[in-house]
Structures are given as C-alpha cells and as structure tokens.
Amino acid sequence: MMPIPANPTNASIQPQSLYDAWADLAWRAMLTEVNLSPKPGLVDRLNCGAHKDMALADFHRSAEAIRHWLPRFMEYGACCTRLPPESVLAGLRPLGMACEAAMFRATAGVNTHKGSIFSLGLLCAAIGRLYQLRQPIAAETLCATAADFCRGLTTRELCQNNLQLTAGQRLYQQLGLTGARGEAEAGYPLVIRHALPHYRALLAQGRDPELALLDTLLLLMSLNGDTNVASRGGADGLRWLQQQAAFLLHQGGIRTPDDLVYLHRFDQQCIERNLSPGGSADLLIVTWFLAQISQVNH
C-alpha cells in the first residue's frame, strides 16, 4: 500500500499535472453543488436548509481541504494496477480516513462531505487505474471500475448482525436501503442511467446550466433511496420527499427562473420536516463531475 503523505497541503501543486486537473474538477463539482440554490433541505447560498450545525462557508473550507487529497487517490489507483480490483478498496480506506480527518479539521468537526470523500475517492482511484492501464477515462468506465472496487461491499458491511447496529446497517435491515455503498457497488446506476443523461439532454436543449442542475437534483431526489432522508424522517419522510420531487418533475420541472418559487416552497417544507437529501446531493456532485470529465485532455 502507498504511504500516506503526512501533510499533503504543503505539496507543490503543478497546474499542468493531469491528476491535479482532475482533482480541480472534483473540487469544482463540490462547490457547484453547494452554491446551487435553492436546494430543498440542503445548505446553499440562501440558507442552511434542515441543518443547524453547518453553513455555506463550512462546505467551502471542506472542499478546499479535500481537494489536496484527491490526487493521492489517483496515485494509489495507478500504483496498484496489478491488484485485482476488489482488493483496491482496502488500500483506499486509510486515504479516506486521512481525508476525512482533514475535512473535520477544516470544519471544526462538522461532517460536510463524508459521502463525497467516499464517491470521489473511488472515482479518483478509478481515474488513476484507468490512466495507468491506458484505458478510456469516461463516465461509464469510471463507474464500472468503482463498482469493481466495491464488489461485495454491501454484503460485508450491511448484512452483519452486530449487537450495536450502525445507522447504515439499521436502515438496510429495516428498509432495505443500501445507501452510498450500494450505489457504488452497482456502478452508480442512478447517475449513469438517469441523472447524467437527463442533465446532458437539458444542456443540449439550451437549458440554463444552473436550472438544469436543479432539475437533475429533483430527478435524483425522486429516485434515490436516500439514507440521509430516511435517518431523519423514516420511510414516511423518504416517501414524501420522493413524491414531492416526482410531482414537481411531472409538472414540468425547473424550466425558467419563475419555477424557482416551487423549489423555495419545497425547501421550506423540508426544513419544517427536518429532511435533508444529502445522499442525492452527493450523487449530484458525481453527476456534474462525470459530465465535465472530458474537459481534461489526457
């Protein structure tokens, strides 16, 4: 396993480096998501959503801290190409934990991007592996490689009968929700089959990029078995949120700035119900990142 640098923030940043360029894209994905407004129940430029312990500035600091670690995931993915893909995840865990520690230092203990560290860490390791193997780096190949890394993860971590269940294990056993682990192990089907084609189609139609991204968030919220929502509102809260998002899409979605009034109303309802679709926000970050991946000329 690659040694983890003790202080990656002091490493010299080479703008021409491919790894740094991809890391910069992932950083922009995190900023694009949190700055997107209005988002139902989520922290954005207008309010803190259903959160009392975090604000916009926390997410900006968190994204900057995470940014410096992402090339390390790519380096690890590149250096372990001789390992079978399902053996890669064990080596990524120490990097993920170190990246989380950097996030918590930047936010004074607030969990802003733990889900994104998992998903972006996997995708960055996949970038390193595919680049080293001289294979195409595209949304589909990256998600398939991430799925290979996570083979068997859901069974190993969610199907255990511990005396003290984790939140993820409890939601899996009670509601069958697999969360971020299941989505990664399946190759991010909500992104590849739904969100990414939807977002690309809206942009191809000339839709405003921010409105297109808000519409894509609604699509993810309508389909995702979001464990963040279920942990706060149970099965009823998750069902309500999915139905509300689906209803707005059925009514035409977010086509013009005038439609934002419906999102503002949805946001207030989520705040009143203490619901925050953080899992869908993480998938929106993945969607935007993969939509831009071809920008890096390698």
From TrEMBL:
**InterPro entries associated with the record:** CitG (IPR002736), TriPribosyl-deP-CoA_syn_CitG (IPR017551)
Q: What is the lineage of its organism?
A: Bacteria, Pseudomonadati, Pseudomonadota, Gammaproteobacteria, Enterobacterales
Catalytic activity entry: 3'-dephospho-CoA + ATP = 2'-(5''-triphospho-alpha-D-ribosyl)-3'-dephospho-CoA + adenine
* Keyword annotations: ATP-binding, Glycosyltransferase, Nucleotide-binding, Transferase
HAMAP family recorded for this chain? CitG
Q: Which GO terms describe its molecular function?
A: ATP binding; glycosyltransferase activity; triphosphoribosyl-dephospho-CoA synthase activity
Which species is this UniProt entry from? Salmonella montevideo
Q: Name one Pfam family in it.
A: CitG
- What protein does this entry describe? Probable 2-(5''-triphosphoribosyl)-3'-dephosphocoenzyme-A synthase
User: Which EC numbers does the record give?
Assistant: 2.4.2.52
